[in-house]
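Appendix B. Worked example

We walk through a single record from start to finish. Start with the input: the chain for Pirin family protein, Duganella vulcania, length 289.
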Amino acid sequence: MTDQVSSPRGVERIISGQAVMDGAGVKINRVLTQPLQRRLDPFLMLDNFGSDQANDYIAGFPSHPHRGFETVTYMLEGRMRHKDSAGNEGLLTNGGVQWMTAGRGVIHSEMPEQEAGVMEGFQLWLNLPAKDKMRAPWYRDFNGADVPAFTTAEGVDVKVIAGSSHGVAGAVQREVTEPIYLDIHLPAGASFSQALPEGHNAFIFTYRGEVNVGDKAVASGRMAILANTQGADGVTVHAEQASRLILVAGQPLNEPIAQYGPFVMNTQAEIFAAVEDFRAGKLGEEAHV
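Next comes the structure step. The output line below is what the pipeline stores for this chain.
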């Protein structure tokens, strides 16, 4: 089964991202920043981290809280140990994914379990609908081999982290936001098409080589926001050189966004409540694994 795309989306604009430091001093390219949250609803943030210099990542992300959204950590290369306030623990390694629903609150840490070599990957923040923001926390770790994957006739390798592609269901499905999250490896000269619901906001991020969407080139380290063109039914990417990218799409929530650091709610009152709960030690309850 293939995803037939007869009217592909074009590129609305290309984003370079911002160099930031997060956690205890980890160097990050923040690709999806706060000013883009409305345009790319339901996605709140995309961080791309990657370095072979241990000083860029070794300090990691000590214990910190979250409430009101989901985090999706995708490890391209490296070893990262996750721990949370309930004693849950997991190790993310090459190709692995951790999907965490913070819900009403979880406190966790993400610390490198290596002192040398490359650490590279992504963290995507996916908003929760208002009705689910105070649900019980949940998370699941997927080893690289556990993430569904397929190869097209043109030799394109695709990992399906969320949603579905060419008849292959991804590791995680979500009803309201209906996210699609693909990691796509194109050999030189290959093309790949993915059907997308017309209402979904969507973007690609190239992390190796360069791909073309229509007549627009999207170089490595760049995000292309895909136009919400009426009648468009998907996207087609082509690579003259061997290239890799992620494709992310989701159904917008069209709800108010109130954010204070690691808390994302719908109103300022809910943010104040989150801060108070954190200060009172009420935010780190057990997450269901």
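Two observations about the output. Residues 199 and 251 are 6 Å apart (CA to CA). The chain has one domain: 11-280.
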